[in-house]
Sequence to fold (330 residues):
Amino acid sequence: MKLIKLFPLMLGAAAMALAGCGKKSDATAAAANGLVKVRLQTDWYPQPEHGGYYQAVAKGFYAAEGLDVEILPGGPNAQVMSSVAIGRVEFGMTNGDDVIVAIARGLPIKMIGAEMQRDAQGILFHKENPIRSLNDLQGKTVMAGSGSTWIQVVNQKMGVQFNLVPLVGDLARFMSNLQFVQQCFVTNEPFFVRQRGAEAEAILIANDTYEPYRVMLTSDDYIKKNPEIVAKFVRASVRGWVDYLTGDPTPANKLLVEKRNDLTPEFMAYSVKAMNDYKIVLGDSAKGEYPGQITDARINKQIAILQEVGVLDKKVDVKDVVAFEFIPKK
Fold:
């Protein structure tokens, strides 16, 4: 997962270019095995935070729906939303608030289901420097992605002010300073800090004020042409996530290790446990949440906050953002 949330300048260019695009990718060609071939673009290198998709491949959940899904690894320059919009891939996954911003900028894409009920981004701190909520960041110095939407929300909406240090991709400064605080993924960095001998804790950035989803998405054009395939993809993906987090994750983990041999069993077990402990994917049943769910109330709230802090280029409606016909029922 990307630690720095960026809104690529090329989104506008991609939106304008759509009118001149040739024929978009259409899932009409069957693979040699008779299944419909589609591609999923992830936002980062293979990792347990993508485990549900790999589980759906490994255990045949996609195949049972008639799909042959190829998972394309991402990285620092993964342009998930624009790749989906122009038909380079059929499906993608990324931060929900990024999708709202992209749609406001004219990109013809929609959310089709939640990968995660809340983003796994968090605040990493030493046990000696306890932080119980985002309000405790007041007056501190925090290393974080300077373009991150959550910073604008915390500063403007919650009134919490802190000194910002640009985020870098290592833990050196954190390990050398017990007062150091930085942005992280709760499924990732705490493991490596503890592995190096420090006692670190983390809280989610997601809170009652602002709680974006991580989502699955496709293009408006693909929804129009292939609604049955979209429904099958969402259904099998959610099934994969539930199975990965509540059953035996070994099938997906084997595929992940084939893609990245630096993934250890200990790290993958930690990530799975963190996703469950923080109720990131399966949701909080006490709040009525369940896997894959997206509610119009939460999206409307997110749109309103993004508008309030000046992130959206224009006003959007919830129907512009989510194709609710594909959202799983409880």
Notes: The longest strand covers residues 109-116. The beta strands are 36-41, 67-72, 91-95, 109-116, 121-126, 141-144, 163-166, 181-185, 200-204, 214-219. The chain has 14 helices and ten strands. The CA atoms of residues 257 and 264 lie 8 Å apart.
